[in-house]
Structures are given as structure tokens and as C-alpha cells.
Automatic annotation (TrEMBL):
The keyword Transmembrane helix applies. GO terms for cellular component: plasma membrane. Keywords: Cell membrane, Membrane, Transferase, Transmembrane, Transmembrane helix. It comes from the Bacteria. Belongs to the Lgt family. One of its GO terms (biological process) is lipoprotein biosynthetic process. This is Prolipoprotein diacylglyceryl transferase. GO terms for molecular function: phosphatidylglycerol-prolipoprotein diacylglyceryl transferase activity. The keyword Membrane applies. Signal peptide: none annotated. The chain crosses the membrane at residues 13-32, 44-67, 79-104. It comes from Desulfofervidus auxilii.
Length: 138
């Protein structure tokens, strides 16, 4: 296992974080390409992806906090210590999906069309995330 990608003075860059970032970028690229094929405006998709990433991270952390709630009772402020780990994939999917539902209703878009566009990107992003988990020792 190689949890640390590299150190630059006092800054440590973790392999998991690198692979999650690669996963986000790869997924975003694939989603934009698919959206263009479907004739959707890139700005519309970029805005949706931005909000889905934010809500996905919140959902992933929230589910982790629920799973590990007794340990967070002792030190509640550690809920915000994302750099110490603790995200649950399905919580991220639920957070992102709820955001997509809200966005679709506000912008009057076809929900199922967007699901079809986003599904391959989600799988690709998850694949990179799993590689990062492997390097972290999960």
C-alpha cells in the first residue's frame, strides 16, 4: 500500500485524494462529452456537476458520521475533519441524486436523459476512487 503520494515540505498529498480527483475529472469529461452528443448546453451540465459534487461530499460525510456516530459524540468537531478520512460512497450518490432531482425540476430538464448521461461517468469516477482506496489500504 502507498497511502502517501508525495510530501512537499509540511504538505502531504495522499494517493486516495489524487485518485478521487482523477475520478472526478474523468467523470466530468465523460459526462460533458455525452451531454454534447445529446445536445445539452455544457454550462448547464457544468453547473449541475458542481452542485452534485458539493452535495455528494456532504452526503458521503453525513452517512459516515451516522455509521460512526458514537465516536463523533466524544469529539463533535471532528465531523468537519474530512482530511482524516470518512466518506461513504452511497451517501455521495444519494446527495448527488437529490441535487439532480432539484436541479431538473428547476430547469425543466428530462431526468432520465440526465441519468443516462451521468451513469457512465459515475461508474468511471467510482473505479478511480476504488483504486485510491486500494492504495490507502482499504
Amino acid at each position: 500500500m502507498h497511502p502517501i503520494f508525495f510530501r512537499l515540505g509540511p504538505i502531504t498529498i495522499y494517493t486516495y485524494g489524487i485518485f478521487v480527483a482523477i475520478g472526478f475529472l474523468a467523470a466530468f469529461t465523460l459526462i460533458l462529452r455525452e451531454a454534447k452528443k445529446e445536445g445539452l448546453f455544457p454550462n448547464l451540465i457544468s453547473d449541475l456537476v458542481f452542485w452534485m459534487v458539493i452535495s455528494g461530499i456532504i452526503g458521503a460525510r453525513l452517512l459516515y458520521v451516522i455509521y460512526e456516530f458514537p465516536s463523533f459524540l466524544k469529539k463533535p468537531l471532528t465531523i468537519f475533519a474530512l482530511w482524516k478520512g470518512g466518506l461513504v460512497f452511497i451517501g455521495g450518490v444519494v446527495g448527488g441524486l437529490l441535487t439532480m432531482i432539484i436541479y431538473v425540476k428547476r430547469k425543466k430538464l428530462d431526468f432520465w436523459q440526465l441519468v443516462d448521461i451521468f451513469a457512465p461517468g459515475l461508474a468511471l469516477g467510482e473505479a478511480f476512487g476504488r483504486i485510491g482506496c486500494f492504495f490507502a489500504g482499504c
